[in-house]
Amino acid sequence: MSLVTPDFGLLFWMVIIFGVVFFLLAKFGFPIITGMVDKRNETIGKSLQEAKEIEVKMKEMTLEHERMLEEARSEQRSILAEASAARKEIVGKAREEAREEADKIVSEAREQIAREKETALSDVRREVAILSVSIAEKILRKDLSDPAAQEEYISRLIDEAMSGKSRIES
Questions:
Q1: Around Cβ 40, how many Cβ atoms within 10 Å?
Q2: Nearest Cα to 139, choosing from 131, 150, 128?
Q3: What distances in angstroms separate CA 19 from CA 5, 6, 23, 26, 27, one per listed residue?
Q4: pLDDT tens figures, 91-150
C-alpha cells in the first residue's frame, strides 16, 4: 500500500462514507446553516433599513432644530426691538416730564420773584408814605406863623428825607 496511490477498496469506502456524510449534511446540516445565514442576512438588512430610517429622522430633527433656533432668534430680535422701543419711549417721556417740571419750577420761581419784588415795592411805598406823613406832621406841629422859619424847617426835613432815602437805597 502506497501513500500516494490508495487501493481500490479504500477509495470505494471513502466515496461511500463521503456520500453518507454529504447526504446527512445535505439533509440536516445545510438547511440549518442556510437558515441561520438567511436569518442573519435578514437581521443585517433590517438593521441597515433601520439605520437609514434613523438617519432620515436625524436629518429631519436637525432641520427642525435649526428651524426652532431660527424662530427663537427671530423672537429674540423682536423682543429686543420692542424693549429698545419701550426704552426710548420711557426715556422720552422722562425727559419731557423733567422738562415740564423744570419749566414749572422756573415759572414758580419767576412768580415768587415777582411777588417778592411787588412786596418790596409795596414796602418802599409804605415807607415813603410814612415818611411823607411824618414830614407833614412835623411841619404842622411847627409854628407856621413865621415864613422864614417855615422854609428853613422844610429844607431841613427835605435834607433828612434825602439822607434817609440814601440809607434806604443802600
A1: 10
A2: 150
A3: 21, 18, 6, 10, 12
A4: 999 999 999 999 999 999 999 999 999 999 888 888 888 888 787 777 666 656 677 777
